TrEMBL record:
This is Acetyltransferase (GNAT) domain-containing protein. It comes from the Bacteria. It holds the Pfam family Acetyltransf_7. CDD domains: NAT_SF.
Amino acid sequence: MEIRETHKNGYTISTDKDKLDISCIHKFLSNEADWSKGIPISTLKTSIENSLNFGLYYNNEQIGYARIISDYSTIAYLGDVFVLEAYRGNGLSKWLMGEIMEHPNLQNLRRWILLTDTADWLYKKFGFKQLPHPELYMEKHNPKVYKAVKN
């Protein structure tokens, strides 16, 4: 897939996996994100390898991240979205979401999925809604899985 990059006021959003600062992403996801506390770095690396990644940078330093899991024809799952606290409040998450939603390989999908208990105000701006029929939704969820995995 073609690497995409956009720039604005010293900030960059890039889909280039080689630019990702794995230690920065791991530090945030394993220590600060409720949804992935304790994620082993090997698990993170595998998730990155099998996803469409969006790195957010300021002067080439990683300050944010998001990833998409998709078949690029019918469905996409948006996950691991974050902007480091020191950079929040500058419209960067909105810009990051815009770049994700406008990516040419993610157009005309039947369904987008997102699980979140934070920043729903942001995702609503991009068309995400609460489930209209939650009784149809099923999941198999193991929030303690990373406690059993060795780094």
